[in-house]
Amino acid sequence: MTDSPGGSGSRRRGRPPRTESAGTRDRILAAAREEFAERGYDKTSVRGIAKSAGVDSALVHHYFGTKEQVFEAAVEVAFAPALTVRDAVLAAPLDDVGERMTRVLFGLWENSVTRKPLLAIVRSAVNNDVAASVFRRMVTAQLMRRIAGEIDAPDAELRVELAAAQLVGIAMMRYVIRIEPIASADVEQVIARVAPVVQGHLTGP
Amino acid sequence: MTDSPGGSGSRRRGRPPRTESAGTRDRILAAAREEFAERGYDKTSVRGIAKSAGVDSALVHHYFGTKEQVFEAAVEVAFAPALTVRDAVLAAPLDDVGERMTRVLFGLWENSVTRKPLLAIVRSAVNNDVAASVFRRMVTAQLMRRIAGEIDAPDAELRVELAAAQLVGIAMMRYVIRIEPIASADVEQVIARVAPVVQGHLTGP
């Protein structure tokens, strides 16, 4: 995401590919995801991440920089599957895009491995302005605008966001706050109800 | 909400109606709403609420009990307008219920006075299990089940929750995380797009 010379992205690519440091970096990232998911952005500290990864805080700063940059790197990892969503959505025929988008998103939330970083993002973005702005930047640039580019309507971006809002709201109620009966409803039943709504927002009249 | 003999509700009603203590109680509640909205459940302390209300912590405990009970009382206040939603929804003819529900909810979020406690609830429920369970209990008992009772369908509760999810998702994107263009879109434009979807969830085929 950060492609500027000093950003974490280029720093990572510029570093010599020693197995040990790659392993350490991944361990720090995994610890960061756990910490952000458990505690949210505010209550997570670089020191806590370092401790949970079994390394010194200085090493976390060395690899990533500030707490905001660690968060951005952790979110970037969580965004890899989101880019799958985007690509799946972009590859689908336009009249199938609602179901495709709905299925991929539920797939991410139903999978316990991808659910954790998603929870981390949601919890942090809801509670902290820095995290919210990282989230806004990535979601807007990587997802919303790209999907909107496929839709031939003057209000394409608003359409994508209304569709996303339906999915975000269900994720909140089913996976984050866990309100019944939607939390335990059969996922196919929910998809069957939601996909046409998402499609309607995207390409409806 | 708490109607048991020891609950905050009966304690409040049982207390002699001295102007001073009523004023103090309201000041504590207002401070609690501010603190929960700013910091979320986890980072809010009874001591911080007391300090911001200009009273001793012991007085907060005296009026409300534990932090969870202060939170419940603060949420209860935030829920008063939600009951307006419910009553408006229940009073509407069934084929107008989608627009009514949408309008009342946007009314609450557009109003800076009611937005703050809503933000407090969302932030806390997303980040803390105790807060989430207070939220679940209130939303389920006071809103979802009551509205579902008006809808003649075997999956009435799921319908209400899918409708609510659309509104929750828009609130998240527009008011909490503030993603553009939905954050600045004309509210009437958004209502016009969303009300039919809410109606469809509630009473559609």
Unreliable stretches of chain A, pLDDT < 50, 5 or more residues? Answer: 1-19
What does the average pLDDT of chain A come to?
83
CATH class of the largest domain in chain A: Mainly Alpha
- Helix/strand/pairing class of chain A, anyone? mainly alpha
Distance between the termini of chain A: 35 Å
> What oligomeric state best describes the polypeptide chains here?
homodimer
User: Which percent band covers the strand fraction of chain A?
Assistant: under 5%
Report the largest inter-chain contact.
A-B, 42 and 43 residues
How would you sum up the global shape of chain A? Answer: globular
Main sheet characteristics of chain A? none
The number of distinct helices of chain A, counting runs of at least 4 residues, comes to 10
Q: Tell me the count of domains of chain A.
A: 2
Stated plainly, the CATH topology of the largest domain in chain A is called Tetracycline Repressor, domain 2
How many extended strands of chain A? 0
CATH H level of the largest domain in chain A: which superfamily?
A: Tetracycline Repressor, domain 2
The CATH architecture of the largest domain in chain A would be: Orthogonal Bundle
Q: How large is the radius of gyration of chain A?
A: 18 Å
N-to-C series of helices and strands of chain A: HHHHHHHHHH
